[in-house]
Amino acid sequence: MPRDTTLIPPSAAQLKWLERRERLVFLAFLAPALLFLVLMFLVPLGMFLSQSLFDPHFTLENYQKAFTRPVYMKILWRTLVVSGETTLICLLIGYPVAFVMAHGSDRVKMMVTALVLIPFWTNILVRMFAWMALLGRNGVINRGLMETGLTDAPIPMLFNQFSVTIGMVHFMLPYMILPLYSVMTNIPQSLMDAAANLGANTRRTFLRVYLPLSLPGIGAGVLLVFILSLGFFVTPALLGGPQNTMLAQIIELEINDSVDWGFGAALSTILLVLTVALYALYDRFLSAEKIYEGR
Amino acid sequence: MQGGSRIQISDLSKHYGPVQAAEAVDLDIGQGEFVTFLGPSGSGKTTTLMMVAGFTVPTRGDILVDGRSIVPVPVHKRNIGMVFQNYALFPHMSVADNIAFPLQMRGLGKSEIRERVARALDLVRLGQHGGRRPKQLSGGQQQRIALARALVFEPSILLLDEPLGALDAKLREEMKFELKQLHHRIGATILFVTHDQEEALTLSDRIAVFNDGRIMQTGRPDELYRAPANRFVADFIGETNLLSGRVTDGGGEVITIDAGGQSFAGRMRSGFARPSSEATFTLRLESLRILRGEEPADCRAEGVIEEFLYVGNSTKYLVRLVSGQRLTARVPGNLPDETLRVNSKVTLGWNIDDMLLVEAA
Ligand SMILES: Nc1ncnc2c1ncn2[C@@H]1O[C@H](COP(=O)(O)OP(=O)(O)O)[C@@H](O)[C@H]1O
Ligand SMILES: [Mg+2]
C-alpha cells in the first residue's frame, strides 16, 4: 500500500532538494546555449586573442607596435571620433523621432514606426549601394544639381568622411531610436501633468522631468550605437576613401592581406577592451536602476 | 493657514465625439468647502475635475474661481493643488525634492524652500523620510508625500482624484481621518473624487452625485441619504429596497402600488409629478423592523427568512413575503437574535413616512 506522504511534514533536506531542483531545471534549459557559446565562441575567441600575446612565447611586441606607430593611433582616434559623431547625430535626430513614436496618436505612431523599421529590415549592402548611386560623381544628387544649374561641376560627396558619416547614421538610427522608444513609452503621462500642475512650463517639465527619466534610453542608445560604430566595417569600406579607414578595416587588412594574426589579434583586443569599458561606464551611471533608485 | 477659494461651475460640458463625458454640470462651491464628486466609474467625475485642473478644455461652459474665469489660464499658472490617482511622484527625485519642486518653479529662495519642505513633511508626519526615493516608501506614505507636495505651495484649491483607491482598508480608514483634520487645519476648498459612497458620506460637506456625465443631485450627506431626489441616488447611496410597480391608487395623499404581488403605500412627494401608471418607492434597510407580537406599525407584511448575513454591528435579513416579493431588513446590534434562522416566520413593519417616492410615471 502506498504511504500517504502528505501526512508527514517534509524534512529540511527534502525542502532543500526541491529548491535545488528548480535551479537545476533552469540550468538545463540554458545548457545548449551555454555549450554553443563556450565551444563555438569563447574558446576560439580566447585562442585568437591569445595570439596577440604569444608568438609562440610571451611577447608584448604587438601591443608595442599598436601603441607606438602613429598610423595606428591615428586610426584608433579617427574611429573614436567618427563613432562619436555618428552617435551624436543619431541622438539628435533619433530623440524627437522616438518621442513622436512613444507619444503620438496611433496613426502617427504606426507610420513613424514603419519608416524606422523598413530600412532596418533592408540588407546593408543594398542600402550602401543605394547611397553610392545617390552620392556618386554621376549620382542622382550631382546630376540634379548640375541639370538645374545650381553647380557646374560635381560636388565630391562619395568616398569621403561625409558619405561615411551619412551611411553610418542611416544604418545606426534604428539602434538609437528603439531603446529610446522603449524607455519613453514607459514614462507615464501623469508625471508630465503633475509637473505642469505644480507650476512647470513645457521647457522646465522637459528639463526637470522628461529628460532625466529618458536618460536610461539615451544611455542605452548611445552605448549601442557607439559600440556598433567602433567595430563597423561595411560602411567605411564601401563609402569611404583610404583617408577614412577605420579600425575594423585595419584588422581585416592585417589578417587577410598581411597575414599578421598576432597584430590583428592585438588590435581586436584593444577594441574589445574599449567596448567592455564603455559598457561598465553605462552600467555605473545611466542604467534604469540608477535613475530610479538613486545611488 | 491659507483659506479657500469659491468655485463656480456653470453649464460645464465635455464631449468626445458622441460621448458626453460631462454634460451641463452646475455647481457653486463655497470658500473652504469639502465637496465630493460621487458616481460610478465612467460617470464624468474625473473629466469634470480635469477641466478644473486645466488638463481638459471644456466643450462648453465656464469655471470661475473667486469670480474670475480660469478656463483660459494654462495649467502651470492655475495654482491649484492636486493629488493624482496614482500619486504621480517623480521617481528620479528624492521625497524632499518632490516637495521642493513646486516651490522651485515659483522661484523661492533656497533657505525658504528648505524650511517649507520640512514643515510640509511634518504636516504629513513623514519628517525623517525626506532623503528617500518615492519607490522606497509604502503606498500610504507615498500618498501622504503627494498630499504634502500638493499643499506646500499653499493653493487655495485642492483636487483629489480617488486618492484612497490604492490603499488597503485599514489605511484607508486612517487616511479619512487625516484628510478631514487636514481640511480643518488648512481651510482650502477641496474637490474630492470617489466612487465609494462611504468615503463620500464621511468626508464631505456636500456631495454631487454623478451619473452619465450629469449631476443627479447635490446636497449634504444626510440630505442625500435621507431624501434622495431620484431613483439613481436612492439606489447608489446606502443600501435600500427599491419597490417598483403599477399604481393601484394614485389619486389621493397616499399612493398605492402593486410590486411583485405585494401592495405598498407611500405618501405623495412634492417636486414629483402625480404618478398615473408606474411608481418607485425606496425603503431603507434600517427602516424595516422585525415585529414582536402585536407591536404597532403603520404597515406590516408577513414572510419567512430566506437568508441572513451577520456584519458585525448589525445583521441583514433577506425576507420573502407571502406574495413572493423580497425585502431586506437590517437589525442593529452585535449579538444576532438566535430565534431568527433560515425559514423562521417573521412579520416586518415600517412607518409610511419611511416609504419615499423616487420615481413617478
Ligand atoms: N480622452 C477621452 N476620449 C474619449 N472618451 C473619454 C476620454 N476621457 C473620458 N472619456 C469618456 O468619458 C466618460 C467619463 O469618463 P471619466 O470622467 O473618466 O469618468 P469617471 O472619472 O467618473 O470614472 C467615460 O465614458 C469615458 O470613457
Ligand atoms: Mg475617474
Structure at a glance:
The complex is a heterodimer of chains A (295) and B (361). Chain A has 295 residues and is mainly α.
Describe the overall structure.
In chain A, 76% of the residues lie in helices and 0% in strands. Chain A is mostly helical. Chain A folds into two domains: 11-50; 62-294, MetI-like fold (Orthogonal Bundle), CATH 1.10.3720. In chain A, helix 3 (70-103) crosses helix 7 (161-184) and helix 3 (70-103) packs across helix 9 (202-230). Chain A is globular, with a radius of gyration of 26 Å. The mean pLDDT of chain A is 91. Chain B is of the alpha+beta class. Chain B contains eight helices and 20 strands. In chain B, the strands form four sheets. A six-stranded mixed sheet of chain B has the order 6-7-8-3-9-10, sandwiched between helices. A five-stranded antiparallel sheet of chain B has the order 13-12-11-14-20. A five-stranded antiparallel sheet of chain B has the order 15-19-16-17-18, with no helix packed on it. The chains are: A mainly alpha (295), B alpha+beta (361). Chains A and B meet through helix 8, helix 9 and helix 13 of A and helix 2 of B. The site of magnesium ion (MG) has 2 residues of chain B, from helix 1.
